[in-house]
Structure formats: structure tokens, C-alpha cells
Amino acid sequence: MPDWIVSTNDAKYQRVAGGDTYPCDAPGDTMDVIDASSFPPRIVATVDVSTTIVGPPQAVAISPDGQLAVVSAPNRYDAVRGECVFENYLQVVDLTVARPRVVQRVPTSHHPQGVAFHPNGHLLLAATLGGTIESFAVEGTQLVRKNEIAVSNDRLSGVTFTPDGRAAIVLMRDAQGAAVLDVEGSSVHLTPERISTGVAPYAVDVCGGGRWAVIGNVGLAGLPGPAGQLAGDADTVTLVDISRRPFRAVQHLSVPALPEGVAISPDGRWIAALTMDGSNLRPDNPGRRERGRVRLFEIRDGQAYAAGDLPAGEAGQGIVFTADSQYILAQFNVEKMLAVYAVGSGTLVDTLHRVPVQGGPCSIRAMPGRRSSLRTMAGLK
Q1: Residue numbers in the chain where pLDDT is lower than 70
Q2: d(Cα 2, Cα 4) in Å, to the nearest integer?
């Protein structure tokens, strides 16, 4: 049974010694479709899209049946003005054809970042920088805009549905904490329920069994405006019990600076965090390190315990588990590759396998529901 993962690449941007650069001869952005059903994972299709490294590494999603992908966070670099311009639309990619391609651009009211498919595939949510959640019905290969829900006056970041599809968790990057949405059919409503997080919650993931969610908090670096000089301070990951309402945070785990990517394994046993650990800083910063870290935690008896710690790439982004909970794919942005780690032996191991990509990988997601009922995609057999 295929295990499809989608990963986007911001090719126009390149981090050099902690600085932002935009090479004039850069290629276009892309999305890779990855088959992780066997080792080693392999890219089976690449699609031209528009995306950006700016924002949580969850600006892409794949439907539970593997038929569609949605790419968020479109932007373009304006060389005359010397800045990136955020744009307001989602891109729908048809994955059923021999050569997957964008088949629809759907306007949004604000710049969209985190996106998520409902476990039954009929609904998609997009979290925006305008503080809203925009909901879309999924009709074949098209998105139909349904509603816009005001969650905050400030930026939102990651969003995910719970495995039973009855609720969604959306992260309030600037206002702090996580908001909970009720989901009934195609109707989505904001509740007064909130979840405590660390500073600047950024990415969120849930396990297939419906017991746990995990939230990565990127600290002062994730807040708006100048934060002063940061030197690679420790940040946190929050473990959330979603087995009953109200959802509640049960543990805050210390991790190295900037846990851009967080993931929980489909079987609910492991938490992985991909942290920059100062590898995004300039060489003259005392917190500068050449490489980030991958941290692994094991959940036992309702608590998470440290289980592994290995070097990662420079300024890493997103991270996901494979469907069998045996492997982890981590985005090494500066190196332009995906790294594969193993956890099947009960500890964290770098397999040393790398998957080169066409630009700096910036967002990555696996299918919701952990793909137990996946239908083979006709164009990617």
C-alpha cells in the first residue's frame, strides 16, 4: 500500500551564513510527491507551484485518499522592491493523472499558511495571517469556499483536524495558545475552548489513535517585530491530551531553539522535533551552530521522555513520520534535501539516506487518518 507524502520547495530563497538571499537565476518553486511505503523513500512526481519558507512548515496538505494536494503560502520575489510579496490563494494539485499538475487557484481573503484536510476528505481548512480560518468544501478536484471564521486579530499558523473529525486545533501564533473549533458535517464553529502552549505556537500534529496532539513553539523569534538579539535560546514542544474535551496540555518539553517542525507518530508512541538550534543565525552570533538537531521523545504512561538526539541540517523545516511509524523524513533546507531517520529499533538512528530536491524544502505533510484505506493513485503507480 503506498504511503504518500508531499513536500514543497522554495527555490527562489537561499539562506547563506544565516542571511536571506534571492539568487537572480533561481528556478521556480516545486512540490514533490514521495512514496514512503518502502525504504528508501523516493520522489515519484514533481509539480510546479508557488510557496514560501516564511511561515510554519505545514503549508501543504494531501487528501486522505491521495487524490489531491493543496499548496498554500504562495509568494513571489519582487527584485525591484527587493522584497517578497505574499499572495492570497490556494493551489489544488490533481494527483490522479500521469503528470500531476495545478488544476485550480482558489482566492483567499488573507495570505494562507497552515492547511489541513478533514479525515474523510470532504473539507479543507486554511489558517491565515489575517487571523481567520477559511473553510472549503472538496468537490472532486475543486475547492468551493464555504465560510470564514474570525479566530484572532493576529496571525494564525498551523491547523489540524482531530482524527475523529469532530474538532480542529488552530494555533494563534501572536495571540498565543491554541483555539479549538467544533466540526459538524461541513460546518465549522469557533468554541471558547483554549489550549495552553509555549511562546509563538507554530506547527501542530495529531496521532492516528486520537489520544495525542503535539505543538511546536518557536519562542520570541516567532513573534512580530524586532525581537532584539537572540542567541539560540531553548524553546518548547507541548504534548496535548485530545482523548476527551476539553483538550488540555499535559506537558511542555524543552528542546533546542526553533522547533520548526514537530510530528507525532501514527501509533502515538513517538514525538519528533526538527530544531534549528542556532543554525539559522549569522556567524558573529554567539548562539550560531553549523547544524540543527532532531530530538525524539517516547510517550509512556501519559508522559513523554527523551529517547534520542542527533545532528540535523542547517535551518531545518518540516518533519513527518512514515505510516508504519518506523521512519522520519526531515527537511534540510540549506542542503536542499530530505534526510531519513529510523526509530524502528526503539531509538533514533540516522540512516544516512538523503533525497535531493529542487530547492530549499519548506513544508511537508502526510495523509490524515494515516492512510489505512488508501486507494492507489492511478498516475503514480
Answers
A1: 1, 370-381
A2: 6
The 3-state DSSP class for residue 234 equals coil
Q: What single-letter DSSP state applies at residue 247? A: P
Residues 102, 120: Cα–Cα separation, whole Å = 22
Q: What is the pLDDT of residue 1?
A: 63
Neighbouring CB atoms inside 10 A of 52's CB total: 25
pTM: 0.95
Spacing of C-alpha 101 from chain mean position:
21
Give exposure, 259-286, as e/b (b: 16+ Cβ within 10 Å). bbbbbbbbbbbbbbbbbbbbbbbeeeee
Domain encompassing residue 220? 4-380
Is the distance from CB of 58 to CB of 363 less than 8 angstroms? Answer: yes
CA dist 117 and 72 (Å) reads 13
3-state secondary structure of 352: strand
* pLDDT at residue 378, rounded to an integer: 36
Number of separate domains in the chain? 1
Q: Which amino acid is at 252?
A: H
Q: Which residues, 6 or more positions from 305, have their beta carbon under 8 angstroms from its beta carbon?
A: 297, 298, 299
Calpha distance 282→275 (Å, rounded): 16
pLDDT of residue 2: 79
The predicted pLDDT at position 372 comes to 39
Q: What share of the chain is helix, strand, coil (3-state, %, to 5)?
A: 5, 50, 45
Q: Which residues of 155-177 are buried (b: 16+ CB within 10 A; e: fewer)?
A: bbbbbbbbbebebbbbbbbbbbb
Looking at residue 61, its amino acid is A
Closest CA to 257 of 226, 289, 227, 282: 289
Q: Taking Cα atoms as reference points, which of 380, 365, 377, 371 lies closest to residue 58?
A: 365
DSSP SS3 for 70: strand
Do the Cβ atoms of 29 and 82 come closer than 8 Å? no
Dist CA 212 CA 205 (whole Å) = 9
Please report, for the domain that includes residue 222, its CATH number: 2.130.10.10
CB proximity list for 304: less than 8 A, separation 6 or greater:
239, 251, 253, 271, 297, 298
What is the DSSP code (8-state) at residue 74? -
pLDDT tens digits along 181-213: 999 999 999 999 999 999 999 999 999 989 999
